[in-house]
Amino acid sequence: MVDQDVPTVPRVAIVTGGASGIGEAIARQLHGNGHEVVVADVRHSAAAVLAETLRRTGARASAVEVDVSSEASVRRMVAEAIDRHGHVDIIVNNAGIAGRSAPSWELPDGEWEKVIAIDLSSVYYGCRAVIPHMVERRWGRIVNIASIAGKEGNPNAVGPVYCLAPSRRRRRASAARRGWSCPIRGQLTATKARRIS
Ligand SMILES: NC(=O)c1ccc[n+]([C@@H]2O[C@H](COP(=O)([O-])OP(=O)(O)OC[C@H]3O[C@@H](n4cnc5c(N)ncnc54)[C@H](O)[C@@H]3O)[C@@H](O)[C@H]2O)c1
Known about the structure:
single chain, alpha/beta, 5-stranded parallel sheet, 7 helices, binds nicotinamide-adenine-dinucleotide
């Protein structure tokens, strides 16, 4: 979180890829802190199981099916979250895949497009979908999950496309890879909106 602050009043948070792994841990932590959580994942049944578990222990929680590589799907996710919870305060753009691990010339056709769509375009879609709502409410937090692979590269562990795509989230990434996090901050400043990310 850019401001390093943890919301002290209950908020509504969407966590993409929230059904398992790091997203699940984030969802559980936010919910444990008293916030309403929307577990958004392409695996709806797994998201529903987690949402049900969370609901039993405290604040509201719901599950939404989303494919973050589709802008239409991401927009539906945000609309459903607002419909069910009244508003959205926080989005954690976490969903991602490592992709195949192989030299680029051995990757199957379409692998580049798939990883870029899920790991990179998804962040753009998530930000586009929530920012007007957050600006209108004059409060919001956007968390984009990065990977060290985007900064250092990691040819032996993950596919080369993955090493490029997560770098969108690193503030110190090279200019070509700076991605969305830095420009979006500048755009929001230009609108004179209260800082929301
Ligand atoms: N695991 C690591 O060591 C590590 C390290 C650095 C960064 N990351 C990043 O953290 C994030 C989460 O990683 P993880 O290890 O928890 O992964 P994971 O595979 O355990 O979980 C990813 C979740 O995203 C969901 N998902 C996959 N494709 C989706 C799509 N198209 N739409 C919606 N949901 C989708 C999956 O169903 C799953 O629940 C990723 O962005 C990854 O790049 C992971």
